[in-house]
Amino acid sequence: MTDLDHLLQKLTVEEKVSLLTGQDFWSLPAIPRIGLRSLVMSDGPVGVRGTGYTPEDPSVALPSPTALAATWDTALAERAGRLLGQESRRKGVHLLLGPTVNLHRTPLGGRHFECYSEDPLLTGEIAAGFVTGVQAHGVGTTVKHLVGNDFETERMTVDVQIPERALREVYLAPFERVVAAGGWGVMSAYNGVNGETMSANGRLQDEILKREWGFDGIVVSDWRAARDTVAAAVGGLDIAMPAMDNPWGPKLVEAVRSGAVAEELIDEKVRRVLRLAARVGILDGAEPTNTLNDEKGEDVAHEVAVRSFVLARNSVLPLDAGALTRVAVIGALATDARVLGGGSAQVTPQHVISPLDGIRHALLGVDVPYAVGADPRPFLPPAQGPDWAPFTFTLESHEFGVETGTVRWIGDLPGGLDVAHVTSLELHTELTPATGGDHVLAISGFGAFELTVGGEKLYQGSLHPPGTGRADLLLHPREQRFTVALPAGVPVPVVLRQTFDPGMAHSVSTTLGHRPPGPDEDGLIAEAVELAARSDVAVIVVGTTEQVESEGFDRSSLALPGRQDELVSRVAAANPRTIVVVNAGSPVLLPWAEEAAAVLLTWFPGQEAGRALADVLTGVAEPGGRLPTTWPRREEDCPVLDVHPSGGTLAYDEEIFIGYRGWLRSGASPLFAFGHGLGYTTFSYGELAVTPAEAVVTLTNTGERTGREVVQIYLSSTDPSPAERPSRWLAGFTTVTAAPGETVTVRIPLPERSFQVWHDGWQTVPGTYTVTAAHALDDPRLTTPLAFP
Ligand code: BGC
Fold first, then answer.
1. Is the CB of 223 under 6 A from ligand 1?
2. Burial zone of 298 (CB within 10 Å; 0-12 exposed, 13-18 middle, 19+ buried)
3. Are 420 and 503 spatial neighbours (Cβ–Cβ below 8 Å)?
4. CA–CA gap between residue 214 and residue 233 (Å, rounded)
């Protein structure tokens, strides 16, 4: 009998079931009698939020997962994981809810930014590195969302129909890789797959994951995904989260008593929970093996950002800082960068370095004027800046000072207040306008509001119709705007009162927005164009907004919101040295790409955004990223756009042909191919030698500075196969650094899976393969034939 079985024997059925049922939003109960402490879980992929989501308890915010994958660097992914393992320890978290390895089936997927790639191999390798890093700290991971949560529309109920081959070769592959790498947890998805909701999907959770792959960790439900007591229990789920609307607890105890669920089944789940508890050091006698405190958040966030930026086009970078007089910085996102995507992947960063601040800091002595140009944000930015007195928020009887007119608290509230009992919020501040004229004020959030400016009541009412659901309150907030004429220099008190039902959205979320008097939209663009025309260089930051890329909904268009395209074209026409920085977590259309001197894709770059950007622009660092996903020229060219279930189902009829597999099949040419990305030096590929187990590539840095190359190995074969294969597929990759003139040799393992197809089981396809060593999918450098096996 194992040690865990000894503990198991001591537990009553109620206690066993309590270890499978969330006790609140984020944790399982302690059972001191057996030396077990409470297991705490937290999101997520870019930072560790902890059980609260408040400015008082900030988190390191790494770049988005798309950015991590764009580094193509498994060692760096492991380092990012180690940092989050360390952050988890700091915040008392034992199980991190990530990484997300759903695939970039279509760029319209709302959580695309939170997933790694359109390629299962790249996704699996980056995820395995990340998981290894987190778990080195004795912190568990949950690779998510098993499986088919590659879009958001109707995600709670949709049945995703995935042909078996696509399931095995594409969608399950990253999960399988993480299990092989020793991952301790899996989160099952909201959706169903092939007729059975995932949290009760015995075929996937039990047969394939646990029995076929030998997974010995826990399967936790996505939050409120478990709905049926017995079906979830027999379908392979181990932990149902959170406490709210949980179908287990007393109902599962009763199901055991009535014989509907065998007690052995419960024991098997509890054994898994206890094994996890031992692994994460919350069981007496099993302290965590490694609590190294070795990574600095700023350093890791900066390194990942720099190495993830994809230089897509270039005739001007790096800039020679000593030769610059004036650099125009343009765009709303240059001062308010989107550093992370929306939904459960959000954290409150320690700080955010904006592109403008980063550039100004790096270019001391250079004139760096700023113009908004075009503002894509549908809501006014929070009130902030020298015109505003400090913002004092009062929550019940507790007062909090914050720097801008916005708060967003989820989970534990500051001052130890219980979110379920808080019913009101008050904001007091004062506006002393530098400019007289029409000021626009805005409120957004949920509940009933009363806004008073200079003693005059501007608004009293509710922004949401009665009956708006919880998720909608958070994901689709509304805004109400008011224009007030104010003279310059005269202070006016501003008071915002908000009341809401207790626990209405398990959060507090309020923004007081402000726009001072200024030019209209045409005037703003004209101002930016004029500024660019009299500058040496123009740097424009364009991108998406919270209303475009988020959990909870899919995108309806790949176009940049607002008038940003027009802004870029007009600025590029005014200044031939225009550098466009794209701040989006997933592909957007860049109709002006050929007009810009440089296009730098920076994803959601995390808290060090501006510092990383300045380093790359000035050549202190080389942009190291390569595209983990294809960027289209036109939306209609994308191989998959369908995110709309019909009659409750959505069929993956394209089978394995997503991403570049689909692009290669249709023959359409994208704007930037999978694997594309330029550096500040050039490499010449000298030799390629292959065996069935590895490719050995020799290459030389032919440029003038030290640089990094991502060497990509693709396979192709026209020999007969039991199932149609893509015309090329990624089989391996590595990164390498070389000094000018240096020749380096890299060895890249070729997994046997790369030579297999799923056809009634895994089948190795013998024949002659063409092995290509490439800079990118569309930039092959060397090829050689390989007889396999
Ligand atoms: C998301 C998960 C997340 C969970 C807890 C869900 O809405 O789909 O990815 O881990 O919430 O926040």
1. yes
2. middle
3. yes
4. 19
Give residues with Cβ within 8 angstroms of 761, minimum separation 6. Answer: none
- Kindly tell me the burial class for residue 521, based on how many C-beta atoms sit within 10 Å of its own C-beta (0-12, 13-18, 19 or more): middle
DSSP string, 710-747: EEEEEEE--S--SSPPPS-EEEEEEEEEE-TT-EEEEE
Report helix, strand or coil for 275. helix
Whole-number Å distance between alpha carbons of 132 and 138: 10
Instruction: Tell me, in angstroms, the distance from the centre of ligand 1 to residue 199's CA.
Output: 14
Q: Residue 295: its pLDDT value, please?
A: 85
Query: How close is the Cα of 270 to the center of ligand 1, in Å?
Result: 23
232 Cβ closer than 6 Å to some ligand 1 atom: no
344 lines ligand 1 (CB under 6 A): yes
Whether a cis peptide bond, with omega within 30° of 0, leads into 386 is: no
Residue of minimum CA distance from atom 12 in ligand 1: 344
Q: Which pair of tokens denotes residue 775?
A: 């800079």
**Phi, psi for 734 (deg, rounded to 5):** -160, 165
CA of 113 to the centre of ligand 1 (A): 15
Q: Is 44 in the pocket of ligand 1 (CB under 6 A)?
A: yes
Pseudo-torsion of CA 420, 424, 430, 435, nearest 10°? 80
* Separation of alpha carbons 616 and 63, rounded Å: 15
What ligand 1 atom has the least distance to the C-alpha of 189? 8
Tell me how crowded residue 420 is: count the other CB atoms within 10 A of its CB: 10
The CB density around residue 292, as the number of other CB atoms within 10 Å, is: 12
CB of 97 shorter than 6 A to ligand 1: yes
What distance in angstroms lies between residue 93's CA and the mean position of ligand 1's atoms? 16
In this structure, which residue's CA is closest to atom 9 in ligand 1? Answer: 344
Q: Which ligand 1 atom minimizes the distance to the CA of 344?
A: 12
Q: What is the C-alpha to C-alpha distance for residues 170 and 99, in angstroms, rounded to an integer?
A: 17
Q: Say what angle helices 263-279 and 3-10 make with each other, to 10 degrees.
A: 120
What pLDDT score was predicted for residue 334?
98
Cα of 163 vs centre of ligand 1, distance in Å, is 26
Q: Is the distance from CB of 533 to CB of 555 less than 8 angstroms?
A: no
* 62-79 exposure pattern, b = at least 16 Cβ within 10 A, e = fewer: bbbbbbbbbbbbbebbbb
For residues 677 and 683, give the distance between their C-alpha atoms in angstroms, rounded to a whole number: 13
Query: For ligand 1, what atom is nearest to the CA of residue 43?
Result: 10
pLDDT tens, position by position, 544-590:
998 899 998 999 999 999 999 999 999 999 999 999 999 999 999 99
Task: Using alpha carbons, list the distances in angstroms from residue 578 to 361, 397, 469, 672.
Answer: 20, 52, 45, 19
- pTM as predicted: 0.95
Name which residue sits closest to atom 5 of ligand 1, judged by CA. Answer: 223
Please report the pLDDT score of residue 412 as a whole number: 66
Q: Amino acid identity of 548? A: V
Ligand 1 pocket, residue 622 CB under 6 Å: no
- What pLDDT is stored for residue 423 in this prediction? 84
Q: Whose CA is nearest to atom 4 of ligand 1?
A: 223
Decide: 144 in ligand 1 pocket, CB within 6 A. Answer: yes
CA 560 – ligand 1 centroid, Å: 27
Neighbouring residues of 393: CB distance < 8 A, sequence distance ≥ 6 = 399, 400, 401, 402, 407, 425, 426, 427
Is the CB of 43 within 6 Å of ligand 1? yes
- Closest ligand 1 atom to the C-alpha of 44? 10
Bridge partner residues of 27 (DSSP): 40
How far away, in angstroms, is 223 Cα from ligand 1 center? 6
Mutational test site, ligand 1, from 43, 156, 186, max ligand atoms within 8 Å of CB? 43
- Tell me the catalytic residues: 222
Can you list the residues of the chain whose pLDDT is less than 70?
Answer: 1, 53-55, 288-293, 410-412, 465-475, 502-506
